[in-house]
Write a structure and sequence with these properties.
six-stranded antiparallel beta barrel, nine-stranded mixed β-sheet, QueA-like, globular, 2 domains, about 325 residues, alpha/beta
Length: about 325
């Protein structure tokens, strides 16, 4: 679906038609983060009771912040083993955090591909026959627990087509974290606290975006994660900076919801998102709540597919 913010028109097509809506000189920004096999299964020690871990972030070598099930059994000091009994890896809960996560000592570096599984969203119940289906074709930097799913629509052939037509392709990195799964629970959305995520924008990527902005060319974000990163990087520059986006690395926890003023992004490729999600709120901030709701109603009427492996919209 193509959504026109200016006139409110909704148009329909196939994703491989995307180049028809791009222009020579556009800068297409992709998040090149790669999903790690962060879901681990094992058992408590010595109880043998089944447990499940979702590794959210590496804190240090052999130390991770995690979600665990069942939480009531995984108190500080609890021991467990992941992988096959007797040849897996033993771990220990070192801290229980206020948000319900656990810090665990678990030395799985070098064995994650063997021990872990793709951390698919909770509404997908069947394992993937090919885990690469949950990776973008340009994924490069390991660290996410969820795919930047707008990019799943791109093939190497489509990327080559947009390059040939004069579109500049730029890669940035934001490691997608827990908030891709976590609904907004508070009634006042400004009370919702985003978990910060690790990011990196290289100097050449920042320079390409800044040139486009200064020359009046469009910056097109592929996915909401790239939007959040670009807008976060713009916030680091302050109001008077000549360049819009700052290169660098660090942690970003920007929460974008209606009322936000966008400084970088002119157009957005995104999927159809879950209700009460920060992703839907960002999309509504970008296109306007009423227009987004109308687009969603039209998508439902036409039986579009929603969520991670669903269809896409291009908001211009």
């Amino acid at each position: 679906m193509v959504v026109d913010r200016g006139g409110g028109a909704l148009r329909h097509g196939r994703f491989h038609d995307l180049p028809e809506y791009l222009r020579a000189g556009d800068v297409l920004v992709f998040n090149d983060s790669r999903v790690i096999p962060a879901r681990l299964y094992g058992r408590g020690v010595p109880s043998g009771a089944n447990i499940e871990l979702l590794l959210l972030e590496r804190l240090d070598t052999g130390a991770w912040r995690s979600l665990v099930k069942p939480g009531k059994r995984m108190r500080a000091g609890a021991r467990f083993e992941v992988g096959e009994r007797g040849c897996g890896v033993e771990g220990r809960v070192t801290a229980v955090n206020d948000d319900g996560t656990r810090d665990v000592a678990l030395a799985v570096e070098g064995r994650l591909e063997e021990l872990g599984a793709a951390p698919l969203p909770p509404y997908i119940h069947e394992p993937l026959a090919d885990p690469e289906r949950y990776q973008t074709v340009y994924s490069r930097v390991e660290g996410s627990i969820a795919a930047p799913t707008a990019g799943l629509h791109f093939t190497p052939e489509l990327l080559e087509r947009v390059r040939r037509m004069g579109v500049e392709v730029v890669f940035v990195t934001l490691h997608v974290g827990w908030d891709s799964f976590r609904p907004v629970a508070s009634e006042a959305i400004e009370s919702h606290e985003m978990h910060s995520e690790r990011w990196h924008i290289r100097e050449d990527a920042a320079a390409a975006v800044n040139r486009a902005r200064s020359e009046g060319r469009r910056v097109v974000s592929v996915g909401t994660t790239a939007v959040r990163l670009l807008e976060h990087a713009a916030s680091l520059q302050g109001g008077g900076a000549r360049d819009v986006v700052a290169p660098g690395k660090g942690r970003a926890g920007l929460f974008i919801y209606p009322g936000y003023r966008f400084r970088v992004v002119d157009a957005l490729v995104t999927n159809f998102h879950l209700p009460r999600s920060t992703l839907l709120m960002l999309t509504s901030a970008f296109a306007g709540r009423d227009l987004v709701l109308r687009a969603y109603r039209e998508a439902a009427r036409r039986r579009y597919r929603f969520y991670s492996f669903g269809d896409a919209m291009f908001i211009v």
